[in-house]
Amino acid sequence: MIIGLTGTPGTGKTSVCRILEGRGYRVIHMNDLIKNEHLYSEVDEARDTVVADMDRVLSRVCELVGDDEVVTILDSHMSHYIADIVIVLRTAPSELKKRLEARNYSDAKVQENVEAEGLDVILVESVEWCQLVYEVDTTGRNAGDVVEDVETIISGILSGDDTLVYSQYKPGSFDWSEDIF
Ligand SMILES: Nc1ncnc2c1ncn2[C@@H]1O[C@H](COP(=O)(O)OP(=O)(O)O)[C@@H](O)[C@H]1O
C-alpha cells in the first residue's frame, strides 16, 4: 500500500519521513529517486529544479514497492500524482516563509512556494488526483508532533475504519489566502 506524504516544500515532509523511517516504516524519498536515477525529462535551471518524467517515476515506484501490503510512504511534493491515498502537510504562510528562508531559498522561490501554500495548490491537486486525502497542520508544531498525527491516520487507514480519523483530518480546514499578499 502506498501512502503519499505531500505538501508545499518546507511543510516538513522529509523531517516527518526521517522519523517514520526510524520507526520502521518503508519510505521512498521520491525527489532523491528522481534525481539519482535520472527519472526526469529536462532540467529547469531558472527554477533550480528538474521536470520529472512521471510515467517513469510511477513504473519505478511500482517496481520498488512490489505488490505486498506493507505500507510504503512516498515522500515528495509530487507524491499525490502517484499515490491514491495522500496526507497533505500544511503550514501557515508566515511560518513557511521563515522555514524556507532558513533553507536559503532565493526570494523568488520563497515567494512562489508561500503563495502556492496560501492558495492551497497542492491540496487542490491532491483532491483532484487522489481517492483519499487527509490534511495535517504543522504550524507551530515540531516534526515529532506531526508524526503522531501521521501515524494516527495510517492506523485508521489500516484498520479499514477511517471515518473517525477522516473527520479529524479532512481536507479544506484552512484559508490562508489573505495571508500571502
Ligand atoms: N513541524 C515543523 N515545525 C518547525 N519546523 C519544521 C517542521 N518540520 C520541518 N521543519 C523545518 O522546516 C524545514 C523544512 O523541513 P523539510 O522536512 O525539509 O520539509 P519538506 O521536506 O516538506 O521540504 C527544515 O529546516 C526543518 O527543520
From TrEMBL:
UniProt xrefs under SUPFAM superfamilies: P-loop containing nucleoside triphosphate hydrolases
EC number of the protein: 2.7.4.3
One family name in Pfam for this protein: AAA_18
Positions with a binding annotation for ATP: G10, G12, K13, T14, S15, R103
UniProt-listed Gene3D superfamilies: P-loop containing nucleotide triphosphate hydrolases
Catalytic activity: ATP + H2O = ADP + phosphate + H(+); AMP + ATP = 2 ADP
Function per UniProt: Broad-specificity nucleoside monophosphate (NMP) kinase that catalyzes the reversible transfer of the terminal phosphate group between nucleoside triphosphates and monophosphates. Has also ATPase activity. Involved in the late maturation steps of the 30S ribosomal particles, specifically 16S rRNA maturation. While NMP activity is not required for ribosome maturation, ATPase activity is. Associates transiently with small ribosomal subunit protein uS11. ATP hydrolysis breaks the interaction with uS11.
Protein name per the record: Putative adenylate kinase
Organism per entry: Methanococcoides methylutens
